[in-house]
Specification:
The chain is of the alpha+beta class. The protein contains six helices and seven strands, in the order E-H-E-E-H-H-E-H-E-E-H-H-E. The strands form two sheets. Strands 5-6-1-7 form a four-stranded antiparallel sheet, with helices on one face. A hairpin with a 4-residue loop joins strand 5 and strand 6. Helix 4 packs antiparallel against helix 6.
Length: 146
Amino acid sequence: MHIDLDAFFVSVEQASNPELRGKPIVVGGKPGSRGVVATASYKALALGLRSAMSLSTAIRLCPQAVFIAGNYHHYAEISKKFMAIPADFSPFKEPMGLDETYMDVTGFESLHGSVRRMAVEIKQRVKDDLGIVASIGIAITKVIDH
């Protein structure tokens, strides 16, 4: 499995402050500061903003966006809680940054009914425990060649 938390920094901010949901959100800095967009909400992406875009360009393209400097310590704390969830399903995980992990679930599927059922349970736990949406891909190996 590959588990990825959708728009992680923005999702954490929205879970902490539900009034931000449905708005164009940019995490990376405040207007007038130097820097780049670290994460943009799906609403902001639809308006043309992208990760790594300069804040000055983001402000010009989407002045109505809510700009948040971000709080790395809070994101790391939420990441730690996130990483504990897949660990309840398999000890074989390979974190990739704060918001995603690969996980080998071979041999553990019978404990949960199926690999798909495990994925559904993990997604639900992430949503219930953290208020964040996770995307999960399932494959026979980490790298699939079409």
